[in-house]
Amino acid sequence: MSSMFAALRLTEELLSRHSVTPVDGGCQDLIVQRLRAAGFECESLVFGPADAPVANLWALRRGSAANGELLVFAGHTDVVPTGPLEQWRTDPFVPSHRDGMLYGRGTADMKTSIAAMVVAAEEFVARHPNHAGSIGLLLTSDEEGPAIDGTVKVCDLLRARGVRLDHCIVGEPTSVDRLGDIIKNGRRGTLSGKLTVKGVQGHIAYPHLAKNPIHLVAPALAELVGIEWDRGNTHFPPTSWQVSNIHAGTGAGNVIPGRVVVDFNFRFSTESTPQSLKDRVQAVLLRHGLDFDLTWTLGGEPFLTLVGSLSNALCAAIEAQTGLKPALSTTGGTSDGRFIAKICPQVIEFGPVNATIHKIDECVDVASIEVLKNIYRDTLERLLT
Ligand SMILES: [Zn+2]
User: What is the value of pTM for the model shown?
Assistant: First the structure.
């Protein structure tokens, strides 16, 4: 299986499969064929509703040492929708080369990483058939969607079976300017709130007979915008609070609305907890005398992997293959790393340059595909031989 450009070819094969979330489009079947040939036991785990099933894959190859460690590669085969097709220079599901770049939906996020992981595992096994420890692969087709029938369910199952993970590399596109400049050793938490402030609807010319909820909530919002929630720490930037939507009004220009709905979100560091943030928001709203309902959704707790055997091995592999010393970062959105961190002490995310993810004309530097595969294989060699 190991040949020059094997990772590029597999990337192209995955790109050709339509796998807009939560559809897998046959990506995992293709990977199962490849991994079985390399001695992996593969288990397809389907969760979710019958009309929109989520395909997940758990693949495992045990090494010869009884007490070896388990390193897992994790990722997702689903991609985000293309957006307007006419704005793409070429069909997003037909891999296309232009000026040294490979174009297609999922090139950067994250079919290149998956192909690189699979080929890295194939090459590693061919070179070290009696390797130490074990290699796992955890793939889902529900990362870009609600993420309720994907990695989180597989992690629950692995925990129930008593499977112990030691290291996990998530192939999210973490690089910024060049492959290998940034790896993520954690992510902030996410906590969303939906606030409904009640007033009294009325004629705009008779404000004394109404109560304008927009006017009532505005000073509270101004106060919330100004709060320093925490200052972050060595590993995390400060907690941020942002309003994403405000809805009020009937559409008519002469009606004071009866209510206003405000959606907001925290990205929080380990210096704050969901409860402390909820308490502080509640206190502000009460101090402003508002009549309100507030519902909360905890999207994910923060996680952090301190410098250790996994980050050392991965950083050494990146430096050996690219000459770069990667910086550790915890910025950006959430990822499935938040679920894996609950069953694995060391979780690091590393993948291609993320400049075009989720965009029209998503692309990846063709030359970086082979390098990414070599970094993953080098990391396996450092930890499992
Ligand atoms: Zn992704």
Answer: 0.88
Work out the number of other CB atoms within 10 angstroms of the CB of residue 168.
25
Specify whether the backbone of 194 is left (phi greater than 0), alpha (psi in -120 to 50) or beta: beta
In the chain, which stretches have pLDDT less than 70? 1-3, 65-67
Tens digit of each residue's pLDDT (9 = 90 or more) over 242-277: 999 999 999 999 999 999 999 999 999 999 999 999
pLDDT, residue 202, reads 97
CA angle at residue 350 from 348 to 355, to 5 degrees? 140
Single out the residue of 138, 114, 140, 115 nearest to residue 23, CA to CA. 140
Closest among 245, 227, 241 to 269, alpha carbons compared: 241
Separation of CA 24 and ligand 1 centre (Å): 14
**143 given a catalytic annotation:** yes
CA 77–ligand 1 middle distance (angstroms): 9
Which residue type, as a one-letter code, is found at position 111? K
> What's the CA gap between 9 and 114, in Å, rounded?
12
Catalytic-labelled residue, pool 12, 24, 69, 78:
78
Residue 367's closest CA among 4, 114, 92, 109? 4
Catalytic residue status for 142: no
Calculate how far, in angstroms, residue 259's C-alpha sits from the geometric centre of ligand 1.
37
For residues 55 and 78, give the distance between their C-alpha atoms in angstroms, rounded to a whole number: 10
String of DSSP letters for 185-226 = SEE-EEEEEEEEEE-B-EETT-GGGSB-HHHHHHHHHHHHHH
First to last CA, the chain: 21
The pLDDT value given to residue 334: 83
Q: Are 149 and 52 in contact (CB under 8 A)?
A: no
Specify the length of the chain in residues: 385
108 C-alpha to ligand 1 centroid (Å): 8
From the CA of 335, how far away is ligand 1's center (Å)?
7
pLDDT at residue 265, rounded to an integer: 97
Q: Which of 24, 109, 122, 143 is catalytic?
A: 143
